[in-house]
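User: quick one
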Amino acid sequence: MDTVMQGTLEGAQVVIVGGSSGLGLAAAAAAKARGAEVTLVGRTPAKLDVAATRIGGARTAVADIADRNSVEAVFGNLARVDHLVITAGGLQLGRLAESDPDWLLEEVQQRIAGPLYAIKAALPLMPPTGSIVLTGGQFSDRPPGNGESVIAAAVRGVEALARSLALELRPIRVNVIAPGLIDTPLFDVFGPEGRASVFRETAQKLPVGRTGRPEEVGEGIAFLLGNGYMNGEVLHIDGGGRLV
Ligand SMILES: NC(=O)c1ccc[n+]([C@@H]2O[C@H](COP(=O)([O-])OP(=O)(O)OC[C@H]3O[C@@H](n4cnc5c(N)ncnc54)[C@H](OP(=O)(O)O)[C@@H]3O)[C@@H](O)[C@H]2O)c1
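Assistant: Done. Structure below.
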């Protein structure tokens, strides 16, 4: 049987929007471990500096994915993008009855419009062997009913977007990573006790008996980038969360 060099990212230029923390930072570490050169993009320069140091060096750039001009400025300064990863985003939860729809819709701006801005700007810099990974999530299949309805709509939209773009942008590959509950700074907004109780209750329900680590998602993203036959796929890394 032929040996196929799968998974190597040797010399590849990988841009990670959302790379200064959590899933994106873990993806950056995994891509670097496979030989890639990474560019971390986020809104906060200090976070980017700390993240770049943590993974032993990376180019950094400041942009808000929801702001088209700032996204275009980042890619205007790059010469080549082999792979684009988008994990930028927050967690704007709110029940419709108590929330401003326009505030809730900021999630759509970040999760749907943002990737469109970034992909459009990156495309002229991408080779045919390039690939894109977008971020979905478990709310797409299993919304808990706690104010996540717009996020659920957006992440389902991300999956549809990826499948359609996998055809439109061919031969560039487009995939989605769909994590379950992963231990990242995203949940710091709940405060220490709120955060601990969400993680404890979720761990009890999950078949694996624990919540996820960012490194487990980072490995999944690096796999999607490096495997040239993965395309139009949604890779769930959720401890079996969709089954319970
Ligand atoms: N962790 C989970 O359990 C989980 C599960 C499923 C889906 N997700 C989704 O995955 C995404 C990343 O989550 P995470 O856990 O990695 O969160 P995180 O640890 O808070 O990291 C988010 C990253 O995105 C950047 N970012 C946030 N908003 C941005 C914007 N508008 N423009 C550019 N960069 C932005 C942040 O830096 P700055 O704030 O400095 O910009 C940071 O680098 C979120 O959309 C989240 O909803 C997370």
